[in-house]
Amino acid sequence: MKYYFNTTLNENFDEVIDKVTEKLKKEGFGILTEINVNETLKKKLDVDFKRYQILGACNPPFAHQALEAEDKIGAMLPCNVIVQQKNENTVEIAAVNPLASMQAVKNEKLTEIANEISEKLKRVINQLN
User: Fold this and answer.
1) What residue intervals traverse the membrane (predicted)?
2) Which of 47, 69, 91, 114 is 20 to 30 Å from 99 by CA-CA measure?
């Protein structure tokens, strides 16, 4: 099982960020955190890196259910979605596969929740094309 779902688009990086955010919103996710990796690496290490952004997506009802089912699961939240510039014309979007990351946790209730979240994130990725 792959630990992510992904797709590539031939679009502008900033427009892709907006598009991903919109698709996540339609599936009930909000963005809790945004990490601009290339800016951070430049500031901290003086390294040039491709455009790479991590969006920390959260679906509050499912997050609540997951926390009720497994109180330490917060260590694996939120669901990260990355947007990275692959080349001048290509942007890749990848979302974590919650089913893959939850395999280590032996909790049937959590597996059911992870399955539903996986389906939502798959839809986001598939709707980007």
Assistant:
1) none
2) 91
